[in-house]
Amino acid sequence: MVSDNSSPIDSALKAFRSHNPVAVPTETVYGLAAPVSDLVGIKRIFELKGRPLFNPLIVHVDSLDMAKRYAKNWSHLHDSFASSFWPGPLGLIVGKNELISDLITASHPTVALRMPDHPIALGLIKALGQGLAAPSANKSNSTSPSQAEHVLRHFGTEVLVLDGGECRVGLESTLLEIKEEEKEIVISRPGLYGCSAIEAFLKDQGLRDYRVRYGKGISSPGQLRSHYRPQKPLVVYEKGVPKESVSKAIEKRWGKVRALESSLPEDPYLAARSLYGILQPKELESFDLISLYAPMDLSMDPWVAVKDRLEKAASLFL
Ligand code: TXA
Ligand code: MG
Question: Which pTM value belongs to this model?
Fold first, then answer.
């Protein structure tokens, strides 16, 4: 955390001058950030997280103009998406130019750009005058941080954390790519916005010939199941599954264990916001696993992102 009297933004700028990444709050989750032009700092992000170099980072911008500065072939439709959804939890995967190094994009010709909706993140990018490359501020293959305290648990005092409170959205951004020739929008990671929100937006723009679909995502560990695993096994059971079957399934797989019982809030937005807190509670140390009840049908549209993260995080889904 910031401990002296300087402002959080000044402290972050100072850390950047020494090539030290800084944990920055956004509306989705905390990011571990370094300036786009600082390849030493960016390399340090990969080292701190234990992240393989073939998993690309998202670049955060403070404006549409800054996004265009880094993009190649930015189209009218990119403008429409950005001006409608930014600042906000939507990343656009676009062609990159030479200002974005291959280290950031893992040598892919594209970069994921997004303008976060958080005054600290935006203030820092503005003060810096350039984009911030930032993955979520957690060790690789573990749960993303939706509170400053989660970041501290991952990195201790190794990293300066700008505390911006609990993240309002709580789940990582929606990532999508516009394929103009194919007239397709491919969502590689659902977030607050899923297919139906994007379809509604296109309809609003009069673009009825576009198809929206979920893609498999880039072949990187960022999209793999193990990427979201909490520290202890997670068992998720949906409405309608009898409690005795849950206990039996747990016992069969793990024997007699102490399960931390939790349940998901019934409102999808609140559930998204609370999810990463539920998956990494302070008291988890005294338990062997988390047993999470989902009192709703997770296949309904507003739940698509929560279900995606739960499926990736769970050792057992009943
Ligand atoms: O909400 C968010 O997006 C948060 C905050 C900090 O902005 N960031 C985040 O970053 O979740 P990270 O690194 O944990 O996840 C980024 C995902 C990874 O799955 C990565 O593979 C994908 O974005 N990605 C990055 N660049 C890409 C690209 N050029 N093409 C396709 N996928 C990309
Ligand atoms: Mg991540």
Answer: 0.95
Low-confidence ranges of the chain (pLDDT < 70): 1-4, 217-227
Q: Which atom of ligand 1 is nearest to the CA of 137?
A: 6
Measure 50 CA to ligand 2 centroid, in angstroms.
Answer: 12
- The pLDDT score that the predictor gives to residue 226 is 63
Strands 132-133 and 58-60: antiparallel
Nearest protein CA to atom 19 of ligand 1, as residue:
222
Q: How far is the CA of 36 from the centre of ligand 1 (A)?
A: 15
Residue written as tokens 């990444």? 21
pLDDT at 219: 46
Secondary structure of 244-310 in HEC code, one letter for each residue: HHHHHHHHHHHCCCCEEEEECCCCHHHHHHHHHHHHCCHHHHHCCEEEEEECCCCCCHHHHHHHHHH
